[in-house]
Amino acid sequence: MKQDEDLSFLSFFLSEAVYLIPEPEPVYKEQAEQPEAAMPEAEPPEDTPVPIEKEEATQPLSAAPEPLTPPDFQGLNSKEVLVLFHNSDTEQMPEGDYALLQKILSAVKYAMEDIALCNWAILEKKQEQQKDIFESLQLVQSQKILVFGALPLAWSLSHFFKKYDISREGSGKHLLQADDLSKIAQNRELKVILWDSLQRLFT
User: Fold this and answer.
1) Do the Cβ atoms of 96 and 185 come closer than 8 Å?
2) 76 with 113: CB under 8 angstroms?
3) Structural domains of the chain ordered from first start
4) Is 175 exposed, middle or buried (0-12, 13-18, 19+ CB in 10 A)?
C-alpha cells in the first residue's frame, strides 16, 4: 500500500483507531549474500624510493709495499765509497777488523769519514728477497765499492766477480771484493795482493 494514498475511507469500516507503522525496506537475497568489495591494496607513490639492499663491504685493498730505503751505515761517505762486510753476530765491525780497515784506508789517504761502512747482514733480517738487499745497497751514493767477505747473493748471480780484481758492476761502479778482514790480518800474502788491488782502485 502506498503511503501517499488517501486512507480516510477506512473509517467507514473500522470503529477503532488505526495506526500505520512504516515497513522496513525489503532486503533481497542476492543483495544480502553479495560480499563486500575487497579494498585494493594501496600502491606506493611513484616517487617513493625503493629500498636497496646494502652491498657487502668490499675487501680492503692490500697495503702497498713500503719503498726501499738506503741501509744505515757508519761514516759521512764524503768520497762516495761503499765498504761492505757481513757479520750476523753484531751490527758493528769487530774492533780488530775495524782497526785494520783504518790502516788500509790510511794507506790510500782515506779516512773513516770518507766512506759508508755497512754491515749488509742487517739487511737480511729486514728484507725477505735477495734482490731487495741488492737494490737497497744500490741506493747508497757511491762510485767505488769495497767488499770484505761475501757479496749478497743477487749481486753475485748478476755478475762474475773474481776476488782482488777490479770489476765494473751493472751500474758502472768499480767493485773490489776481498777476503774477510780477519783472514787478511793473518795472511801476509793476502795483504800484499790487497795492497796492489787498492792502488788500482783508488788511483
Assistant:
1) yes
2) yes
3) 81-201 (3.40.470.10)
4) buried
Three-class DSSP category at 174: strand
Question: In DSSP terms, which residues pair with 117 in a beta bridge?
Answer: 74, 83
Q: How far is CA 62 from CA 58, 59, 65, 66, 68, in A?
A: 12, 9, 9, 12, 18
Q: Is the pTM of this model over 0.70?
A: no
pLDDT tier at 10, thresholds 50, 70, 90: very low
Compute the average pLDDT of residues 38-66: 59
Q: What is the reported pLDDT for 99? A: 97
Quick one: pLDDT at residue 171? Answer: 75
What DSSP string describes 92-136? Answer: SPPHHHHHHHHHHHHHTT--GGGEEEEETHHHHHH-SSHHHHHHH
- Element (H or E) spanning 184, and its range? helix 181-185
Q: Which amino acid is at 73?
A: F
- Long-range pairs of 102-108 with CB within 8 A, sequence gap ≥ 24: 104/194, 104/198, 107/195, 107/198, 108/198, 108/199, 108/202
What angle (nearest 5°) sits at the alpha carbon of residue 145, between those of residues 139 and 151?
Answer: 85
- Listed ranges 67-71, 93-97, 151-155, 160-164; the one with the highest mean pLDDT: 93-97
